[in-house]
Amino acid sequence: MVQGLDGPVQRICMVLPEQSRVVDLRAAEVLRQQSRGASREAALRYASVVFPESMSAAIALGQQFLDTAREAAHQYGDDVSLPFDGLQWAPACDPSIVRDGLTFVKHIRQFHERMKLTPAPALLQVPGYFKGSPWTVIGHEAEVPWPARCDKMDYELEIGWVIGRGAHDITPETARSHLFGVTIFNDFSARDLQANEFAIGMGPTKSKDFAYGIGPWITTIDEFPRLDNIRMSVRVNGETWGEGDSSELLWSIDELIAYVSLGDHVQPGDVIGSGTMGNGSALELGRSLNPGDVVELEVGGVGVLRNRLGQRQQGTWWPEPRKPFM
To answer: Residue 168 belongs to a domain with what CATH number?
Structure first.
């Protein structure tokens, strides 16, 4: 976010983490176009198309987006860079819908043990995933709203697979070509609400649709020679609670993307959660979170997604139980 005349404005930036600064790509492209003879008004119009406020819309431009970003940053990045200090981070992407998988073997086993559930045989038949609300996506350093009637809050350490090209009825053999990059995905969970929702059998709703952390930024897929050895860790209030990597998958990322695309349309900028790494949630460790706790998820090659838990909501309406009808 940058400060505009009418308040904060979202900008797509190239992040230089080793220098603790970002390049405002729209501003850099305006300077580049002006150096080539464009008027300021025309340069602004062009730059706003290539670098709109929506990251998903930018990704949909394909290679033109990446090529222009590199050229603008190379030529004018130093003139329009901003330090990390004082920045307000928006979510790294604005997916059309949230999708979250279930692929890490160790987490599947430990989660079911803690919830006193027996893993369904269907887990071995198809890659499981659920759909969530895109309207509750939050970014790096954003406060996590504590949902109504929740006593047991949890984080979930995941990789966010960012889609670069639309996908429909694809196969695992071609799925990798549809990947744009990698981000961090925190599937915050209200565990006590989740137990009731499991009993209904229609998937999670209020136990999930209050906050999905995505950020701090996206690393393009070409930066990862392999996707099955990415280091992952989580810290709460500075203490390491879990460490691991992206191996030991029941279903590969290629299979997950292909399955999601069957009969459906995956859009550029959509984010598919990998599922939680083993020991990547407080539930698996028998630990719990409190309001004010700071959760940091770290993924090698990406960075750290940091969020503070807000205070418990009070006075929110909640439905009254109904009398049995069976």
So the answer is: 3.90.850.10
